[in-house]
């Protein structure tokens, strides 16, 4: 039976705070601090386990090989000889944020009745631009059943595509035809708009989406300038619920009207700027929560601890639940290591509507499998990484060995090589 599966990125052993992401305020704010890769990975795994216990289907993707020697070789250098900036870009663990892995259109929406996945090119940021090959390799293994899935290479540069972080789907139920919303940016003052409309339109064509059930919405310049580098920092959708900040979109009235026309049963939950400022929404990652449907049919938010610690945000959430709004449950998790690098609960996962039986089982989480991964992480992931340690051959070797061990543990040795 088709259901929504959340595939979380396992935080890689090279997780560090090199401050590589322009426009991501948490990333730049925490530049130079000492990271905790082991704690980061365990925090993410704990969230996966909790979602399993809530009755949600859960999968995962593996961290990519870091340092990325193949990418450095394309630039005519090596990890030993590279400049400190290039070396840091080759060591980024940013593939942990699986929301940027791909854009996904479920079978109910596509012309050929298959689930389509287009890997994101992530061309805007150098440290992410070399992720797509490793991501594509995993997607082609996980979703190899061509009767049910079509996996596509990225949209060519220069059209920037950031994946599901700028894509939302609204529907009566996960396995019913939906309205797919592609959110693009034009300008964000000092920060780049990472998703291009041209890329969104290309993905919609590639996936065979019906134009009458497809929406292209412009993200507000103010949201990008405030640090909402992806739409999922200011809006998230699940089934018939759109949960959004008042200032998320350039023309909110026109967008809301179009969505109501295309999905009359939609429930738009808008948080007024007078109650939660853009700044509070972005620092708390209120909208980067996972908005999920529990087995009971009720909607719930899986939130970072920062949401509870931000008074305006927690006050609004408690009032919404008390007022019998469509979101009925609040689950809070400690994801401080991911948050400090600019990624909350929703950044860590890619949503795929599919029958779990059609997915390669090596990518499907079970309590026993999470036990094994946690034990390996506790044993092999570095406890701390200071930015100056990124030049350490011992760290490079430790990161490569840890990832190789994880590939072997999960029976995915075919992913343990330099290039794809």
What topology emerges from the helices and strands here?
Elements: E1 3-9, H1 25-29, H2 37-53, E2 57-61, H3 69-74, H4 84-91, E3 102-105, E4 115-119, H5 126-129, H6 132-142, E5 149-152, E6 167-171, E7 178-184, H7 197-206, E8 214-218, H8 221-225, E9 235-238, E10 241-245, H9 252-262, E11 267-271, H10 278-284, E12 290-293, E13 299-304, H11 305-309, H12 311-322, E14 327-333, H13 336-340, E15 349-354, H14 367-380, H15 393-409
Parallel strand pairs: 1-2, 4-5, 7-8, 10-11, 13-14
Antiparallel strand pairs: 1-15, 3-4, 6-7, 9-10, 12-13
Helix pairs in contact: 2-14, 14-15
Write a short abstract of this structure.
By secondary structure, this protein is of the alpha/beta class. The protein contains 15 helices and 15 strands. Strands 2-1-15 form a 3-stranded mixed β-sheet, with helices on one face. The chain has a 3-stranded mixed β-sheet with strand order 3-4-5, with helices on one face.
Describe, in plain words, how this protein is organized in 3D.
- The longest helix has 17 residues, at 37-53.
- The strands form five sheets. Strands 2-1-15 form a three-stranded mixed β-sheet, with helices on one face. A three-stranded mixed β-sheet has the order 3-4-5, covered by helices on one side.
- It has helices at residues 25-29, 37-53, 69-74, 84-91, 126-129, 132-142, 197-206, 221-225, 252-262, 278-284, 305-309, 311-322, 336-340, 367-380, 393-409, and strands spanning 3-9, 57-61, 102-105, 115-119, 149-152, 167-171, 178-184, 214-218, 235-238, 241-245, 267-271, 290-293, 299-304, 327-333, 349-354.
- It has 15 helices and 15 strands.
- It is an alpha/beta fold and 420 residues long.
